[in-house]
Amino acid sequence: MSTAHSPLNGTAPHLVGGVAAGWNSLSAVGPVRVTGASGPYIRDDQGRELLDFIMGWGSCFLGHDAPPIREALQKALAGGFLYQYETATHGMLAEEFCAVVPCADKLRLANSGLEATMYALRIARAVTGRRLVVKFEGHFHGLNDQLMWNVDTSEGPAAPGENGLLQRLPGAPGLPDEFGELVLPLPWNAPGLVDQVFAEHGDDIAAVILEPVCLNIGCVGPEPGFLEHLRAVTTRHDALLIFDEVLTGFRLALGGAQERFGVVPDLACYGKAFGCGMPIAGIAGHADFMDAVAPVGQVEVSGTNTGRYLSVVGALAALRELSTPGFYEHIEQLNDYLVTGVREVLGQHKVPAFVSGFGGRVGAHIGSSERPRNMADVARLYNLPYATELFRLLSTKFDLYGFLLPLSFCPEPVTVSAAHTTGHIDEALSRLDDALTELPYKPHEPDGPLLGGGRGWR
After folding, report:
1. Mean of the pLDDT values across residues 241-260?
2. 434 within domain boundaries
3. Does some domain include residue 445?
4. Residue 304 pLDDT > 50, yes or no?
């Protein structure tokens, strides 16, 4: 383990901010330039080996350089890799995907979660003939202009507006107010407000879109019965229920959150663990809705780089690996081991925190042992100044990459992959223990102003 207190800041002056994606410039420490990666480790250009707990923002579910994917790609290269057209492998991927995802009669591929959620809204509006979409505060659905509302702001959660709605707040500069007028933002876990909004606007609501577990504000699950309530109210009003399973899909279970919670949406959006690091995404759903998509119907969902052969080959290899017996038992063991360990270490150092996890993504809400129910609770309770100091120390002295990463008002979940072991988690917990010995807990004022910068979503 390195003891040098140096920043993770490889320079690349012609890349904006030195990174290919803005998120890779981590709060408090900046970017890292990687020279190699394997399993749960990355190596940086300072010669350090870092235990990775971001894992490609949750996408590298099998670990870096996963052998099943690498072997499938090497075999595929022998036949050429630069063609975009459909192959038998495309059909096999769709067939095996639809066999395990409860809502999926049919699948259309996309390139990113942003595309998947954008297209899902297009399908919903086309089949219902309606305009409005209900979304929940703190839920992030990609950098999608139509849904980048009430994600987070530097001022914190939105104030209540009229008829149960929250004040509409853009999640980034450059969003015209007209897009916000098509969004009905609500607090998470508030069934009464859902009913109120449908009573007022039900005839023009095309869909409700949500993360079944809100992992973008640090891991906040649905209250018992809440997903069932959404299923019932959307059915009653002939609106579509859309699960954004970009983060939960193939993580919480092979069939995702809909399998885990037993609530089946009309459409679902996939990315990240769908390809286990390969650039691929998808929209899946009931045939009645998916057949609205061209060339069967008239809704355009396409792209030049969609369904590239290597991405499809890699995703199929990943799906087959996820389907092996015992895979999800291993992930649940790691998830529970990490949750218990983080709770114990924080507790030993008298650091108040609520810690929970789903599918190997574990949120540690440092600052209060109270369980947050929504974005307002998270922002009120999270001790961002202390969490930032702790993260800087873990990153620069203890060689942990992304462990207990703070965003602008909430924690980014610690992410494990199938390549992690309980031994890797023990090592991380030991380093956390050492860091907390150096940095005793500093309370904050829960109702004070939010500090920090950057976006609070991933």
Report:
1. 98
2. yes
3. no
4. yes
